[in-house]
TrEMBL record:
Keyword Repeat tagged: yes
Highest rank taxon of the organism: Eukaryota
UniProt KW keywords: Kelch repeat, Repeat
Cited Gene3D superfamilies: Kelch-type beta propeller (2.120.10.80)
SUPFAM superfamilies, alphabetized: Kelch motif
GO cellular component term of the entry, any: Golgi apparatus
InterPro entries from the UniProt entry: Beta-prop_ATRN-MKLN-like, Kelch-typ_b-propeller, LZTR1/Attractin
Lineage: Eukaryota, Metazoa, Chordata, Craniata, Vertebrata
Protein name in the entry: Attractin/MKLN-like beta-propeller domain-containing protein
Domain Attractin/MKLN-like beta-propeller: start-end pairs: 1-76
Alphabetical list of Pfam families matching this protein: Beta-prop_ATRN-LZTR1
Signal peptide bounds: none
Length: 135
């Protein structure tokens, strides 16, 4: 799950108490039950916003409009890393931020953890998660 922007007026741990419109970019890993902070977009203009709409289609996240003291009419696009680009088990196990992959030895390919064909036991998925630390 990808989450971009929002209203941080309630002074969340990410807001640093100063801004109302966020460009925070986070990913929730369903397999590991863990949040990761993704790098903020490096764009030519300020992308802080709330009240926008986002959709994920054909491996691309689209963010439409929103508000940052002005009504915005732009579209932002984000394409996360793809498991299929990993050439071997070691690269597949690297777990890019926001993407969780598992090596399928039978097929000799790297697949998203939730689309691995055949039985995937919970311990295999959990073993691919990093060590959890209390924060």
């Amino acid at each position: 799950m990808l989450v971009f922007g929002g209203n941080t007026h309630n002074d969340t741990s990410m807001s640093h108490g100063a801004k109302c419109f966020s460009s925070d970019f986070m990913a929730y890993d369903l397999a590991c039950d863990e949040w990761s902070v993704l790098p903020r977009p490096d764009l030519h203009h300020d992308v802080n916003r709330f009240g926008h709409t986002a959709v994920y289609s054909d491996s691309v996240m689209y963010v439409f409009g929103g508000f940052n003291s002005l009504l915005m009419s732009d579209i932002l696009m984000y394409t996360p890393a793809s498991c299929s680009s990993a050439p071997n088990a070691a690269v597949c196990a690297a777990n890019w931020l926001g993407v969780h992959c598992l090596w399928n030895a039978t097929l000799g390919t790297c697949l998203p953890w939730d689309s691995n064909p055949g039985p995937l036991d919970e311990q295999t998925a959990l073993a691919s998660c990093g060590t959890r630390t209390c924060r």
